[in-house]
C-alpha cells in the first residue's frame, strides 16, 4: 500500500503583516493545509537567502516567504530588499534544480487572512503534485558520486598522488 505524500513546507512570515494575517485566518476559523510550519520574523527583509537554502537542505519540500505589500513595510524598505534577494535566490535555486513552485514569495497584509489560506493551500497542492524534493538524500547521492570519481582518479592516472576533496 502506497502512502500519500504529504509535503513539508517552511514559511517565513513577517511579524507585522503576514503573521498577523495568519493569526486572523486562525481566529476566523479559515481552514488551510496543516503542512506549513511558520517561522515568524520581524521583517521579510531579515530573511537571508541562506535560511531558504537551509530549509531545503534540512528536508523541506517547499518554502513560502510572506511579507508586507511593497510600500507598506513597517521598516520602510525591507520588502524591496526581500524582492531583490529572492529574485537572485530564485535564479540560484533553478540552477540547483529546485523550481516549479517549490519556493514562493507573497505579499500579504494583516487584513488578508483569506489570502493566507489560499496561498498555503496552493503551495501545498503544488508541492504535493511535484512530489518529495529529498535534498538530504540527494546530498548522499552526490557524495557517493564524488567518492567514486576520487577512487577512479586515484586508481591510476599519470599522477600517483592522492586526490583529496
Give your account of this protein's structure.
The chain has five helices and four strands, in the order βαβαβαβαα. By secondary structure, the protein is α/β, with parallel strands linked by helices. It has a four-stranded parallel sheet, with helices on both faces. Strand 3 (62-67), helix 3 and strand 4 form a beta-alpha-beta unit. Helix 1 crosses helix 4. The protein starts with 8 loop residues before the first strand and ends in a 9-residue tail after the last helix. 33% of the residues are buried. The model has no long low-confidence stretch (mean pLDDT 92).
Topology:
Elements: E1 9-14, H1 18-27, E2 36-41, H2 49-57, E3 62-67, H3 78-95, E4 103-107, H4 113-130, H5 135-156
Parallel strand pairs: 1-2, 1-3, 3-4
Helix pairs in contact: 1-4
Amino acid at each position: 500500500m502506497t502512502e500519500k505524500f504529504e509535503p513539508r513546507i517552511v514559511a517565513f512570515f513577517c511579524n507585522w503583516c503576514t503573521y498577523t494575517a495568519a493569526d486572523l485566518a486562525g481566529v476566523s476559523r479559515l481552514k488551510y493545509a496543516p503542512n506549513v510550519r511558520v517561522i515568524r520574523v520581524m521583517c521579510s527583509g531579515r530573511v537571508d537567502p541562506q535560511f531558504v537554502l537551509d530549509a531545503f537542505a534540512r528536508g523541506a519540500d517547499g518554502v513560502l516567504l510572506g511579507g508586507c505589500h511593497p510600500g507598506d513595510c513597517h521598516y520602510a524598505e525591507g520588502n524591496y530588499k526581500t524582492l531583490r534577494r529572492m529574485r537572485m535566490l530564485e535564479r540560484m535555486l533553478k540552477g540547483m534544480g529546485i523550481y516549479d513552485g517549490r519556493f514562493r514569495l507573497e505579499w500579504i497584509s494583516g487584513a488578508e487572512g483569506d489570502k493566507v489560506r489560499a496561498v498555503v493551500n496552493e503551495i501545498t497542492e503544488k508541492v504535493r503534485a511535484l512530489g518529495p524534493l529529498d535534498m538530504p538524500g540527494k546530498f548522499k547521492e552526490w557524495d557517493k558520486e564524488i567518492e567514486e570519481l576520487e577512487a577512479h582518479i586515484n586508481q591510476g592516472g599519470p599522477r600517483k598522488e592522492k586526490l583529496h576533496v
